[in-house]
Amino acid sequence: MGNDARFAVDTLDVCVVVRVEGDLDMASATSFDETVQSTASGSHLAIDLSACTFLDSSGMRAIAAAAERHPRVSIVATDPGILRILEITALDTMLPVHASLDEVR
Questions:
Q1: What global pTM score does this model have?
Q2: Domains delineated in the chain
Q3: N or C, where is the chain less crowded by C-beta within 10 Å?
Q4: Residue 1 above 80 pLDDT?
């Protein structure tokens, strides 16, 4: 897990997007954190988990840390397993969760 994780940063009109492809776990959380830190801390950050295949507690901590550095953070997720993890950890009550980037405003 985590060995094939990739992160990409895109700037849209309404936010900066960090796209996660692969596993966001103990092996990749540090790289994710470094990617998030490379974005402007005052911007609206959208974390796109639509291509995320696995999310563990290390990944959740990295998302929570990103939320501490940015005034506004949104999550994009569609996978039922990822959505369930967000629900179990109540992260979906702290950060808005959207089905697509088009919904992020």
A1: 0.93
A2: 6-103 (3.30.750.24)
A3: C
A4: no
